[in-house]
Amino acid sequence: MVKAANNPETEDKPEVSGSLVEMLSDMLDADLYIYSGQLGFEGVNLFIDAVEFQPRRTNAALFLTTWGGIAEAAYMIARHIKRRYQKFILYIFGVCKSAGTLLALGADEIVMSCRGELGPLDVQIMKDDEMGMRSSGLVISQALDSISEAAFGIFEQSFLQLKTRSGGIITTRTASSIASSIAVGLLSPITDQIDPLRLGENERAMKVAVEYGRRLNPDLRKVNRLTVEYPSHIFVIDFEEAEEIFGNVREPTDLEIVFEHDMMETLEEKTGHSCIRMPHPELPIVLRLRVAEEEIAHVETNSDFSAGTTNSTT
After folding, report:
1. pTM of the predicted model, to two decimals?
2. Do 62 and 88 meet the contact criterion of CB atoms below 8 Å apart?
3. β partners of residue 62
4. Eight-class DSSP state of 10
C-alpha cells in the first residue's frame, strides 16, 4: 500500500492513502509504471513483461528518471507503449537525460515538475584508451566546428594582412595561397590527431539517434534541435524549454504532486533511494503500480553490450 507523505504543503490537497494509485490511475484511465536507472535491454525485457502479463487499461503513464543508456532500449520501450496503449503519458519528476529524451519524443503528453529536466539527445561513444569510459558524441562535432572557425579566421586575417601590408604588390592569388599554407601549418598538428574511423563511428551513431527520434516523432526540427544545438551532454532542458520544443508539456496537478511526494517516500523506504527523482545508481528498477501492492523487480545483469547491440549509448 502507498504510505502517506508527511508534507504540510499538501494539507488542502487530496488525501494520501492506499487508494492514491487507484485515484491517479482512474483519473488518467492508465496503467502506472516507474522506470529508474540506466536504459538497457534487461530493463526493456522487464518492462515488456510488466506490460504483457497483466490486464491493461486504455492508456499508460510512465514515471521515468535516467541518466541515459542505450538508444535502442529507449526506442523499444516507447514503441511498445504506443503499440499497446492509446495514449502515452510521460512523467518527469527528476533527471531524464539523453536516451530518456529520446524516449520522451514518443510521448503523447509530458508532465514535468519543478525538478524535472531533460537533456540533449547526445550519443555516448566508448573511449579507445579508457576501459568502460565514454565520451560525448557532441565533442567531436564541436571540435570540428571549432577547427573550421579557427581555420577561416586564420586564413582571413593572414590574407588581409598580406594584401594590406604589401600595398597591393602581392596578388590575390598569391596572398590566398600563402594564407592557406599558414592556416594548414598551424592547424595540421590538431587535425592530424583526428581518426577518420572514429569520426565515421561518431557520425553513424548520431545518425542512429536521429533516425530513432524521427520514427518516434516525425517533426525533424525537434529531433535536430535536440541532437545538435546543445553544447553539453548534461545541459539542462527545463520546463519552459521543453514546452517550447515538445509542445505537449504541462505541469502536474495537485493529485500528481501528492503522488510524487508519496512515492518518493515509499521508494526511499524500500530501496534506500529516491527513485522517482534520481536514477537508481546500480541496477534499474522497473515497477508497475497496483492498488494492493507495488512489486519492485531488479535487473539481475546489466551488460550494455549483449549480442546484437551497438557500441553507442545516449
Report:
1. 0.74
2. yes
3. 33, 90
4. G
Q: Give the mean pLDDT of the chain.
A: 81
DSSP H helices in the chain = 20-28, 41-52, 71-84, 99-104, 137-165, 172-191, 196-216, 220-228, 239-246, 254-271
pLDDT tens-digit profile of 3-20? 333 343 434 433 334 588
User: Which residues, at least 6 apart from 228, have a Cβ–Cβ distance to it below 8 Å?
Assistant: 141
Residue count of the chain, please give it: 314
Phi and psi at residue 197, to the nearest 5°: -65, -40
Collapsing DSSP states into helix, strand and coil, what is residue 39? strand
Residues 89, 107 contacting (CB under 8 angstroms):
yes
The closest of 258, 235, 277, 254 to 119, measured between CA atoms, is: 235
Supply 206's cell numbers: 548520431
Query: What are the cell numbers at 92?
Result: 518527469
pLDDT per residue over 87-126, tens digit each?
999 999 999 999 999 999 999 999 999 999 999 987 655 5
Does pLDDT of 235 surpass 60? yes
- Rounded to the nearest 5 percent, the helix, strand and coil shares of the chain are 45, 15, 35
Distance of CA 45 to the CA centre of its chain: 20
226 class by beta-carbon count within 10 Å (0-12 exposed, 13-18 middle, 19+ buried): buried
**What is the pLDDT, as a whole number, of residue 142?**
67
